[in-house]
Fold:
Amino acid sequence: MRVSAEDFDPGAELARLEALPGGAIASFTGLVRDDGGLTALHLEHYPAMTERAIADIVAQACARWPLLGVTVIHRHGTLPVGARIVFVGTASSHRVASLEACAFLIDWLKVSAPFWKQERRSDGTRGWVEAAGADDARAKAWGK
Amino acid sequence: MGQLKILYFAWVRERIGRDEETLPRPPAGATVAQLLDQLAATSAGHAEAFADRARLRAALDQSFVPLDTPVGEARELAIFPPVTGG
Structure:
């Protein structure tokens, strides 16, 4: 688990998970999307809380699926269009566990890791991204 | 009687014009929402930031809490919009 301004190498992260004995690796990489006029996203976070919040989500995933390894990387700072923001990787002995746990982790990261995105546009304007109710619903749909 | 550190993030921080402040710990039983009422009276920025409570979230000692939670013995309160990471 890493929270950092630095970029990461998804290939290297996957190789680390593949070195585990499981045989079933799933991953998600989130990038800054080109939303017409967007030049960058600035990600602010609450450092004292971020690692604890992510560790809590990882612990929930580990309690729910038989995982052999989990990698979560979340960047902060100013990230240009196309930059990587977030990586979730899971290793298990079976595809269902790794795929489901990966989806669970990214759904919960979106609604319970203390990050805030601000859009920086080519016309110089800035605006905070509004939370999407649909994200909340997706996370809650996993139940407890 | 200890102190309570209050942290602000994203547009809450921008509207208030500062990222943190420290207050004497509120009396026993006082909730986060009651503290926000008190803070809203201290500046126009606070009043604007705290006007729509439905758009605010809180954490006490780095754990999410509903706004009607008593502050209790917490040392750190954070006020922010719904998170938008991932």
Notes: The interface with chain A takes residues 7, 9-11, 59, 62-64, 76, 78, 80-86 of chain B (CB under 8 Å). The longest strand of chain B covers residues 3-8. Chain B has a mean pLDDT of 96.
